[in-house]
Amino acid sequence: MHAEMDNFLAYLAAEKGFSHNTLAAYSQDLLSVSTYLTRKGVDHWAVVQPVHLLGYLEASGATLGTRSKARRLAALRSFFKYLQLRGDVVHNPALRLRFPQMRVSLPKVLSPEEVETLLARPELETPLGQRDKAMLELLYATGIRVSELVELTVQQVHLQVGYIVVRGKGDKERLVPMGEWAGEALQAYMNDGRERLLRQQRVSQVFLNHRGRKLSRQGVWKTLKGYALQAGIQQNLTPHMLRHSFATHLLQNGADLRSLQAMLGHADISTTQIYTHVARERLKSIHSQYHPRN
Question: Would you name the residues annotated as active-site residues?
Answer without folding.
Answer: 145, 169, 240, 243, 266, 275
